[in-house]
Amino acid sequence: MDVTVYGELRAATGEKTVELAGPVETVRDALDRFVDTYPRARSQLFDEDGEIRPSVRVMCDGERVDLGAECPPEAGLQLFPAMQGGHADETARLD
Length: 95
What we know:
By secondary structure, the chain is of the alpha+beta class. The chain has one domain (2-82): Beta-grasp domain (Ubiquitin-like (UB roll)), CATH 3.10.20. It is built from three helices and five strands; from the N terminus they run βαβααβββ. The protein has helices at residues 9-13, 27-37, 42-45, and strands at 2-5, 17-19, 57-60, 63-64, 76-80. It has a five-stranded mixed β-sheet. The protein starts with a strand and ends in a 15-residue tail after the last strand. Residues 86-95 have low confidence and may be disordered.
């Protein structure tokens, strides 16, 4: 299974797309295997209780999915990590 990562997750994998070896049944299985393989990604995807962070987006073949969804071996997974909030630059406002 190919996993494409975005944002800060790329620092954890060193590449935009990585391959996970072996079969998985659900999206959660794939994420667990992903963070076992790339431990630095865990804090970007999961909170301290092991729950997926609310702002993390997980897609399977371009469709947003929940963690219990089936994940066929030929599927491609896309992971968008939690994004940090910013603030508007007051000097950049157009008046």
